[in-house]
Amino acid sequence: MADEHQMSVSVWRGGTAGSFQSFDVKMEENQTVLDVVAWIQQYADPTLSYRYACRVGMCGSCAMMVNGVPRWTCRTHVKKVLKDGHMEIAPLRNLPVIKDLATDMDPFFDKWVAAEGLHHPTQTRHDPIEAIDPASAARVEANAGIECINCSVCYAACDTVAGNPDYLGPAALQRAWSVYNDSKDADKLAILDAVSGVGGCHNCHSQGSCAVHCPNDLNPMNAIAGLKRETARNFFKRRK
């Protein structure tokens, strides 16, 4: 029978070819998974590596796999994920492991850039600021994904990324859609070209894991569907 005052926590140690190590951790009231990881590092094994910053669900840097599910550990309460007194914590899926629970985020951000998820300006800093109607259809579409903080939870949840390392992933494509709908962006064709090739939006199988697991309740599937429509429209327009 499980001890009501103590939990068993399996934590990934080492690199990609590492293994799980078990720790016994005291149960506390209002305890988050990040609290557990911090306790292990402070009191059980100071060599444990992990990443965090704000602890209040603003930065997303504490994202890890908890019982096989990508989550913000600072917002995940132990009582919601503990199973028979046990919990498993691992680094985010689909990313190279640096050490223990810390992953290399470079591939994720490289795809963000590869998807042309960057602003192509129409004016200089010397020009007057253009007024944008917040109720316009394009602005509403752009705003739908603006709260993405690049925590990579959707990337870790995506089975398409797992099966196709070249796939740009939901976060990069959502960013591309936000920029595409920004009326101040000057190179929409560059965005469509970037997301229509190998690894682009048409690789998405619409399984929906990105929408299910996004901590900010965003829906990258909608953005990807928009990119599919626009890239298809652009393809036939060019063939005329």
Average predicted local confidence, pLDDT? 94
Give the helix tally.
10
What is the count of distinct domains? 2
> Which segments are poorly predicted (pLDDT under 50) over 5 or more consecutive residues?
none
Largest sheet: 5 strands, mixed
Structure characterization notes:
- With 240 residues, the chain is an alpha+beta fold.
- The protein is 36% helix and 14% strand.
- It has two domains: 6-102, Beta-grasp domain (Ubiquitin-like (UB roll), Roll), CATH 3.10.20; 105-239, Alpha-helical ferredoxin (Fumarate Reductase Iron-sulfur Protein, Chain B, domain 2, Orthogonal Bundle).
- The chain contains ten helices and seven strands.
- The strands form two sheets. Strands 2-1-5-3-4 form a five-stranded mixed β-sheet. Strands 6-7 form a two-stranded antiparallel sheet.
- Helix 3 (106-114) packs parallel to helix 7 (170-180), helix 7 (170-180) runs antiparallel to helix 8 (188-196) and helix 7 (170-180) crosses helix 10.
- The N and C termini lie far apart (71 Å).
